[in-house]
Amino acid sequence: xxxxxxxxxxxxxxxxxxxxxxxxxxxxxxxxxxxxxxxxxxxxxxxxxxxxxxxxxxxxxxxxxxxxxxxxxxxxxxxxxxxxxxxxxxxxxxxxxxxxxxxxxxxxxxxxxxxxxxxxxxxxxxxxxxxxxxxxxxxxxxxxxxxxxxxxxxxxxxxxxxxxxxxxxxxxxxxxxxxxxxxxxxxxxxxxxxxxxxxxxxxxxxxxxxxxxxxxxxxxxxxxxxxxxxxxxxxxxxxxxxxxxxxxxxxxxxxxxxxxxxxxxxxxxxxxxxxxxxxxxxxxxxxxxxxxxxxxxxxxxxxxxxxxxxxxxxxxxxxxxxxxxxxxxxxxxxxxxxxxxxxxxxxxxxxxxxxxxxxxxxxxxxxxxxxxxxxxxxxxxxxxxxxxxxxxxxxxxxxxxxxxxxxxxxxxxxxxxxxxxxxxxxxxxxxxxxxxxxxxxxxxxxxxxxxxxxxxxxxxxxxxxxxxxxxxxxxxxxxxxxxxxxxxxxxxxxxxxxxxxxxxxxxxxxxxxxxxxxxxxxxxxxxxxxxxxxxxxxxxxxxxxxxxxxxxxxxxxxxxxxxxxxxxxxxxxxxxxxxxxxxxxxxxxxxxxxxxxxxxxxxxxxxxxxxxxxxxxxxxxxxxxxxxxxxxxxxxxxxxxxxxxxxxxxxxx
Length: 653
Description:
The chain is an alpha+beta fold.
């Protein structure tokens, strides 16, 4: 078992012991509010405990999880130490106490900061990044030890509430060295926060940089909280002012560490970094400006007048919005140059597209250059494609940043290997360009399909004319020519004074004409099924009677133009035939209904699926026939639930 995990288990045991000591001290105090304080403190410790447990589970050998657990243990330590001291100060008390231990733990409050500073120094791999970070670790831990040892012999009483307790080590001027030790401690906290920035600047992997940005978001809470604590002592005599900083530090750092280790792409952290920098600066500026204006106007108009406060408020409010926008733009470009480069490059491309000097299809190479990610791909959602495709027609795979426009998912930007996700602001800026590329691609694809469909229709028409020509030549035409020749021979015989049997000749002629008419009718029926003479509904019922599989027909189309009925019949016939011949289905359903959009023809089977609209197939011919009428035909393969063939045919005459 790694030592990091062993130490984590030890900290859990220590935490249980500290909780037990707290309960003993609260019972000795006998204060009703003590139970609620203990419960709230335990709840507060759950955040770092949970983060430490998950981090240790994710990487048992990483000391980051151990120090997060130590942050939870520290909360219980502060509670146990404070309640024990309060119980000892509220004499009489039966609690055991050691003056030596109390003198050596006056700096126990440092425990609020040490675990989180160590997390900043060790994140993400559990080791200091460089020599400066290692020196900071020694300075941090050494200053804690030195401060407590020197404070034990410093002149003056112990810290409240035990200021009247004895000093077993005495008082010595050497104890004044606790002040330099305290300054070293604070300097170490600042260096721990800066260590995150140094590690971020040294990182070359975009994923590592994305994780470190999460830590950068919260690293300043450590030195800022101790500054608040000192400010509270100077202004109010108590550390209550630092309570907000302590809460933020004990929640933000564990949460940010956990997200950075496990789910660094959970949220657009760069936006949070900019906001976390802008709004404190903005708040400070507002307070300072308001105070300065109020003071200046009070001197000019009179201190007792309410006019200065009103005027100062109006001026600050007027300046607030442009100041916010300016700070967001300036700090956004400074703190997150990748986002700024992407947005600026896209805006420049939009201007070039509007000027006619560039095409929107340059979206992908422009982003590759701006974000310095040669492997970046931009995919566009196209009808008939389950996955986004690039401008080259190849699928774009991977989990990327979606491109949305008006609530619709129109594409995706997938970062290359080793690069972090593309910022959401860049995807939003690319939305109009992506929509333009997508629509242009759909139009180009539609034109290609129209040209191919026209070519197939021309080829099919030519082949159909040749077939009709052959059928007419080999059938009815031959009969009629032969009949004409026989009549001409009989005419010549009569003209030459011969005799001709008229009755047999007329009978044969009538029979030949009847055969020719029948063949012509059969050819005509090949162009238009004769079953449509009674309408589309009865024609579809005839399909159910002749189908080799159980066929359920539902029809509510009403009266239709002839060309719509013919096309719908061919769609239904081809769909049923494919289901019978190729799908291995047990039953087929044929539904025909009419809406404002046109006539819908749907053929569903429960077969093995696998049907495709491919060139040279009957479905391709149907697709062209439906498209020629301005409709659309689609095939959905619902493996293993069968196939659905759906056509929508406009019903205009």
